[in-house]
Amino acid sequence: MKISVIGTGYVGLVTGTCLAETGNEVICVDIDKEKVEKMRNGVVPIYEPHLDVLFERNIKANRLKFTTSLEEGLDHGDIIFLALPTPEDEDGSADLSYVLNVSEEIGKKIKNYKVIVDKSTVPVGTAEKVHKVIAKNASCEFDVVSNPEFLREGFAVDDFLKPERIVVGSSSERATALMKKLYSPFVRSGNPIIIMDEKSAELTKYAANSFLATKITFMNEIANYCEKVGADVDMVRVGMGTDSRIGKRFLFPGIGYGGSCFPKDVKALQKAGKDKNYDFKILTSVIEINSAQKTILLPKIENYFSNDLKGKTIAIWGLAFKPETDDIREAPSIDMMEGLLKKGAKLQVFDPEAMPNIEKRFGNRLNYSESMYAALENADALLICTEWSIFRTPDFSRLKKLLKNPVIFDGRNLYNLNDVEAEGFVYVSVGRKT
Ligand code: UGA
């Protein structure tokens, strides 16, 4: 099939590349000339495991092309994916200007039947809006379909190639048939393509992300309470998670959720509720609790140093909002670092992938270390913000030699309490005994 993908951000790039992998002819469109030139030369503009291999293979096979010309993209695809940014407006709602501007152009330029697919996370009613905007100028038939994406950064390729489900919001049989054909290679395992109306599909995405953010937040509250009563949240987590109605995943407590999706989507759904006079009280609490959770370790660090962090050097492991990505959007590490800097601490930081992005944001306010151990040199304490695998089994005796004080503040509960204590460390984590 002939596919066009408008927007080569995270979702667009993964969608385009993975659709090429099953033999479709894909053209990806982006207005950023420099980025398009790089992609033509095989450079993947984001860090995402396994994407580079697929990228190279499909470019070589001539199935994956890039252009800055929207016209070329619109001519090419029978199915046109919109994978455009929907940034957060000042009031928390999703800004649809990119989506609607491109829709306007689509209306003016398409010459034969097309299926326009909303792939971005968009508020309920967007497919209807997109349809109206295109219909103003369109001289041929078209359908608009909502097809939210559920991939996770760091696992995006696997999530796209082997999805647990595909949600398609469509009220046109013609468009539904094309979408089913396009996705059939990805659901050979028997996982479902769930067909529903456009609005329900749009809401499914917000509901799923908000539910997961709530699940994490609930566990963070249980963790905070565990500390009050001397219980161990990791035991509670396992005890709860083995109930299949609850499930083991997304129950890991820590210093809060971040990223480009959960924070934005929870706020957008809360705002969308308000617009319809519906008060999502649970989401208001989730936003509030998560914001406080990000700096939950700060008073504990201060307390250890008798409320004086001036001149103290803190080593930080992990800056990305989660492992296997260089993305730092809404990362808890940012709130922690701002808090520590404000208290006068010096910071020596290390992350396997996110250092360039952090450097762009913090400049010379931080010391950037070459390795996880280099960050510890002459530091007064270690703080862990992201659970990269490399941090899971450190050489504790080396850690002890490098750190001025044997103390670890762990925002992701990486280590077994007894093991770390046996190594002679003071170990402060989330929801467990100190
Ligand atoms: C999330 C969803 O998981 C995807 O299904 C969705 O498609 C995507 O948003 C999106 O809307 O595009 P992502 O933001 O890549 O994916 O990352 P997650 O793996 O979901 O993690 C989000 C945050 O929750 C991270 O900060 C992570 O550290 C935190 N988290 C996750 C926890 O604190 N505890 C957990 O148990 C799980």
From TrEMBL:
Record SUPFAM superfamilies: 6-phosphogluconate dehydrogenase C-terminal domain-like (SSF48179), NAD(P)-binding Rossmann-fold domains (SSF51735), UDP-glucose/GDP-mannose dehydrogenase C-terminal domain (SSF52413)
PANTHER family: UDP-GLUCOSE 6-DEHYDROGENASE TUAD
Pathway: Nucleotide-sugar biosynthesis; UDP-alpha-D-glucuronate biosynthesis; UDP-alpha-D-glucuronate from UDP-alpha-D-glucose: step 1/1
Coiled-coil regions listed in the entry: none
Family: Belongs to the UDP-glucose/GDP-mannose dehydrogenase family.
Protein name (Swiss-Prot/TrEMBL): UDP-glucose 6-dehydrogenase
Reactions catalysed, as given in the entry: UDP-alpha-D-glucose + 2 NAD(+) + H2O = UDP-alpha-D-glucuronate + 2 NADH + 3 H(+)
Pfam families: UDPG_MGDP_dh, UDPG_MGDP_dh_C, UDPG_MGDP_dh_N
